């Protein structure tokens, strides 16, 4: 009985930790396009973002000339098996890949991808 | 042994048997083409147009879940001409227009301006490309042989070129600049000509900037993938060392000495008392 209660407790803890803080949620709902919001709020990204002691999570974006976010990429991984630079590079790589696709499809220039957030910490958002 | 083999195959089936989405697209359309040529695929003008455009570009384009994929292969303009001809023979206007563009440029089909004009005329204002091409074909023909000037419709030529220019077709803008500067077939209007030239230059600059950005992104992608792969090796080493640590710890604590809490002497591994008795501590 104790074991079942413990498992339930862990499950509740885990499932309650897959959403960003409200201020971040509000900010990204204004700042990111729909597909990037979905990626940012995805279970895997948020799970890693909320366990920053054990995981790396990076989110990269590319902007058009009028500073609108057009493309994005995210990557995450456990700290025991990955390095921060690896995850950062993978997030940027996915973003650059999407950038190429976007520019070929829309004939519109998108500027170089940059890191937008580390976990749920948006790099240029003041707390 | 069989069990191990099954587990190995199950774990690696994705790696062993999967191919990229681009490979699947390539296989799918090459297979359709084979069936079309063998007469086992129900032919229609749309598939001929698609194949023709793909052979002209050198890639099959497929949209899947909101994302575009390109499966590259060697371009073959002769095949493009063949497929557009088949589409045109089936009565497809777009197929005719595309074929007309090939006759205009002499790509895949032998250059034939009169044929190009005949094919482009029915669709000259249906598509931006065909409008521009129709105007260009007439312009090129009358520049080479001014005696045809009265037989061809100059008004239609200007209308088509203007339609193309309005939709950012650079060849149409260049052609209009030439027409209004030279004043051979229309009245000279240098101001208008310069506007067309300015717009063409702007569009060319944008195209160059876009191409540079695509090249920059491709180069970034390669560098980032190389960094990620190098870092992955470090990560794998960390993972390996951590796994070794886990195994060693598990082994250490599985020893009899640690299953008996009170072992102080003659323990395996040796206890502090053992080490003192042996004179090591």
C-alpha termini separation of chain B: 48 Å
Largest sheet of chain A: 4 strands, antiparallel
Point out poorly predicted stretches of chain A. none
How many helical stretches of chain A?
Answer: 5
SSE-based structural type of chain B: mainly alpha
What's the assembly state of these chains? heterodimer
Q: What percentage of residues of chain A falls in helices of 4 or more residues?
A: 40-55%
Please indicate the percent range of residues of chain A in DSSP E strands (runs of 2 or more): 15-25%
Number of self-contained structural domains of chain A = 1
Number of strands of chain B: 2
Task: Provide mean pLDDT of chain A, rounded.
Answer: 86
Q: How would you describe the shape of chain A?
A: elongated
Distance between the termini of chain A: 42 Å
Radius of gyration of chain B (CA) equals 35 Å
Number of helices of chain B: 12
| Main sheet: strand order of chain A | 2-1-3-4
* Order of helical and strand elements of chain B: HHHEEHHHHHHHHH
Catalogue the unreliable spans of chain B.
Answer: 11-18
How are the strands ordered across the major sheet of chain B?
1-2
Strand proportion of chain B, as a percent range, falls in: under 5%
